[in-house]
Amino acid sequence: MSDKEVLMSIRNLVQTFNPGKRNEVRAIQDISFDIYKGETLGLVGESGSGKTTTGRSLIRLYQPTSGSIMYSGQDIAKLKHGSKDMLSFRRKAQMIFQDPYASLDPRMKVKDIIAEGIDVHHLAKDDADRDRQVAELLSEVGLNASHATRYPHEFSGGQRQRIGIARALAVQPEFIIADEPISALDVSIQAQVVNLLKDIQDRQGLTYLFIAHDLSMVKYISDRIAVMHYGRLVELASADEVYNHPLHPYTKSLLSAIPVPDPSLERRREPIAYSAKEAEEDGKERDLIEVYPGHFVFAAADEVEAYKKAAEANHQPA
Ligand SMILES: Nc1ncnc2c1ncn2[C@@H]1O[C@H](COP(=O)(O)OP(=O)(O)OP(=O)(O)O)[C@@H](O)[C@H]1O
């Protein structure tokens, strides 16, 4: 992984809502990580752990409270609204949303939904060029040109998510944040949409941040996985490492909550409970520390040695 090119480098990112007020929420509490060019980084964690806030902060739908987000030599956290640099970044980084029903304007024709970014960024020479680009995008996501003049309600959930994907692709982005892109879809459709995202990534060399609370699909699509808990990253490693050799107790507890297909095994399994509050009452300062090549764990200085030993033991030949 170390020879990979970094696309985005996030350092000490903090996002506090309503700071200083009674309803203050510290949604992101000082997270640092890199996103490599061309990878899919899965971001998992329970509802409320701060995944959506992270995604939205990275593409500046929110102004971060503090910290830096380096992208192509620029600190995205410092870009000014309406500036040329912001407009140019907005084109490079796109978002696909969870709910294909809510994210498409029902009064707009599919071609106008898809072409929104083309219009904003003046990417079409004329109407014919715009129509041609829309037709190509429809084909890219497995729909056809005749769908262009229809309205969102005429489509199924899976097809609507394809329209949302086409809209994101319209501006030829480099980086896509997919925020629970399949959780609102029928299970039978989920794999199709994930496969489509993978195919598009292969064809276009895109980088994905794939947000999900459900670990099973994330494992399938992700190269690496970051586990989020209470606004912090508690573990970050390759998808295989996170699944087969999790180190942090919270990751273990998340994995223990995934049902396994074998009912007898499922009955015998002990769910692992983990409470960040209890774990942090010791007042120790913790950081995301690399305890094995490419494997990071949120740990205090005096916990690192034990994690290193555990990681090494995991890799001893049986
Ligand atoms: N705009 C906002 N104003 C105030 N608090 C917010 C805002 N957005 C999110 N929060 C709070 O920040 C915390 C993190 O929320 P966030 O939506 O990022 O979590 P999540 O992991 O994406 O959860 P979910 O899977 O439910 O979307 C929650 O406590 C949430 O209530």
UniProtKB/TrEMBL annotation:
Q: Name one GO biological process term.
A: transmembrane transport
Coiled coil region boundaries: none
CDD domains given in the database record: ABC_NikE_OppD_transporters (cd03257)
Output this protein's name: ABC-type oligopeptide transport system, ATPase component
The organism's lineage is: Bacteria, Bacillati, Bacillota, Bacilli, Lactobacillales
This entry's Gene Ontology molecular function terms read:
ATP binding; ATP hydrolysis activity
User: What are the UniProt keywords, alphabetically?
Assistant: ATP-binding, Nucleotide-binding, Peptide transport, Protein transport, Transport
Q: Which GO terms describe its cellular component?
A: plasma membrane
Query: Where in the cell does this protein reside?
Result: Cell membrane
